[in-house]
Design a protein that fits this description.
The protein has a single domain, classed as Rieske [2Fe-2S] iron-sulphur domain (Rieske Iron-sulfur Protein, 3-layer Sandwich), CATH 2.102.10.10. The chain is 21% helix and 34% strand. It is built from 2 helices and 11 strands.
């Protein structure tokens, strides 16, 4: 015996209609989120602030000025618990120290730039190293440039020191925080030394 039939239930019909639409809507939302992340990670990396804002830190000796005799000479140090790096650059960038008039304790006409950077990667906190081998960077980090780069081996983010620490490749988005540097005369040796005394803040 056939079951009695009645008028269609509009609520049930609406429910069934939306049930098959839900996977489509979820797929569209996922695609939209993915497209947004691709744009954010690959095409929308912010430039470092110009000028940077520094918060004072207890002064820390980095190295004698003589340690930066040539471009890409670098010294690692720790500022207030932050692993950091000072590197001589071919040209000044925002936030860099321009060393003028001193070299090995003697006067000189040459001026050069030394920039300080945090070595803590802004992606997931691994340590960044200065890699001077441009071919190794191109092969291992999928980024080809003409200069050494600050590179994170954990997830292959690359930061360009000549762009004040801006991200040029990899999943990191924010630039490396910069370290404020200054020159002073050592009371012990009389030589000119570079000292770190501040760290960049956001905002």
């Amino acid at each position: 015996m056939a079951a009695p039939s009645g008028p269609p239930d509009p609520g049930r019909r609406t429910l069934i209609t939306w049930l098959w639409r839900l996977p489509v809507l979820a797929a569209l939302a996922g695609a939209g989120f993915g497209a947004r992340e691709v744009w954010r990670v690959h095409f929308n990396k912010p430039a470092p602030a110009d000028p940077p804002r520094f918060e004072p830190r207890e002064a820390t000796l980095v190295a004698p000025v003589a340690s930066f005799a040539a471009p890409w000479d670098a010294v690692e140090f720790v500022l207030a618990g932050w692993p950091a790096l000072a590197v001589r650059l071919p040209a000044a960038v925002p936030g860099a120290l321009v060393v003028e008039g001193v070299r090995d304790g003697a006067a000189t006409d040459e001026a050069f730039a030394v920039a300080g950077f945090s070595r803590i990667c802004t992606h997931q906190g691994c340590l960044v190293d200065l890699n001077r081998d441009t071919e190794a960077i191109a092969f291992a980090f999928n980024h080809r440039g003409d200069t050494p780069q600050l590179a994170c081996a954990c997830h292959y983010s690359v930061f360009d020191a000549t762009l004040a620490g801006r991200v040029v490749s990899g999943p990191a988005i924010e630039p490396l925080p910069r370290i404020r540097l200054r020159v002073e005369r050592s009371p012990d040796t009389g030589a000119h030394v570079i000292v770190a005394d501040g760290a960049e803040t956001s905002g």
